[in-house]
Amino acid sequence: MSSALLRLASASPRRLELLSSIGFDAERDIEVMPVDIDETPHEGESPEAYVLRLALAKASAGAETTTLPTLGSDTAVVVADRILGKPTSRDHALDMLSLLSGRSHEVMTAVAISGPEGLLTTRVTTRVFMRHIEAHEMAAYWASGEPVDKAGGYAIQGRAALFIERVEGSHSAVVGLPLFETAKLLARQGVSLWR
Ligand SMILES: Cc1cn([C@H]2C[C@H](O)[C@@H](COP(=O)(O)OP(=O)(O)OP(=O)(O)O)O2)c(=O)[nH]c1=O
């Protein structure tokens, strides 16, 4: 019988790593079950509503086949009211980096956790300040392979740290899961980190 404490409805290796970093055993405590949902924003949907809707959809879909508390999350990069998803091509990635270069933007991450208390949610917005990125740096960054599966086409936990002057808010939320807020929700659902 599985002794897992939590189902993670996510294909993101970052979310699993983040949960491991606060004391979960990735193999024993977490059952990973990615769910496939349509991530297209609705017409006129605000970025705040968008990330919350997707986190709820992931948690709900993941919870259908388990009695374990189930976590779904979504991260979006938002600049000038535009939601930047994951780049679909080199040009798309370079366009995104050009938009982000030399200014600040917001990263919104929503988390939904189902469990005995029903569906609990939280949303964290973090401001990320990027320096100007030269065209040759953007090209080299794309060639590194890092932007591919990242919202906004960059990874703060990787080489994009070279471009990021500072962050106001939650660093872990930018990587994919706001750990402080997530641990509070988990505790409310009866998932304790201190065993
Ligand atoms: C901005 C940023 C995003 N990301 C990643 C986190 C997420 O994995 C991804 C945002 O896409 P999401 O759609 O939130 O997540 P996902 O598709 O990877 O996984 P799932 O939907 O199955 O949970 O971008 C970083 O790793 N570093 C960063 O600095």
TrEMBL record:
Catalytic activity: dTTP + H2O = dTMP + diphosphate + H(+); UTP + H2O = UMP + diphosphate + H(+)
Pfam families: Maf (PF02545)
Location in the cell: Cytoplasm
Keywords linked to the UniProt accession: Cytoplasm, Hydrolase, Nucleotide metabolism
MF GO annotations: hydrolase activity
Taxonomic superkingdom: Bacteria
Marked site: Important for substrate specificity: R14, T75, Q157
EC number: 3.6.1.9
Stretches of the chain forming a coiled coil according to its record: none
Active site per the UniProt annotation: D74
Cofactor(s) required, per the database record: a divalent metal cation
Keyword Kinase applies: no
Keyword check for Cytoplasm: yes
Role played: Nucleoside triphosphate pyrophosphatase that hydrolyzes dTTP and UTP. May have a dual role in cell division arrest and in preventing the incorporation of modified nucleotides into cellular nucleic acids.
NCBIfam families: maf (TIGR00172)
Similarity field: Belongs to the Maf family. YhdE subfamily.
Name under which the protein is recorded: dTTP/UTP pyrophosphatase
Native organism: Modicisalibacter luteus
